[in-house]
Amino acid sequence: MINETLSLTVQAVYALALPLGTTIVAGGEGLDAPVRWATVVSPDGSLPYLEGHDLLLLMPGVPNSETLITQAVKAGAAVLVTLEPLPTVTLATAQLLK
Q1: What pTM was computed for the model?
Q2: pLDDT, tens only, 18-41
Q3: How far is CA 81 from the centre of its chain?
Q4: Which of 12, 17, 34, 47 could form a disulfide with 6 if both were Cys (CB 3.0 to 4.6 A apart)?
């Protein structure tokens, strides 16, 4: 793997690139965490290959979001964001993972 310096942070992506109304689902306490790559998780719910420090945008209609959040955190995702409200139980699970 190429040794790279990650200078873009969760806070910078959130402020500069994400639409208004975007919610940080998991990883929000690490706003200074570096982001290596941004990936969209489509409604088919499959988690793409992750190398760590990924920003995942959960599209509306993603099934089993609780399972997906658990997998993403274990894979080292920097942050998960969504454009739609998630159930309270799902948000609570996400907060417990970090």
Answers
A1: 0.75
A2: 888 888 877 666 788 888 888 888
A3: 5
A4: 34
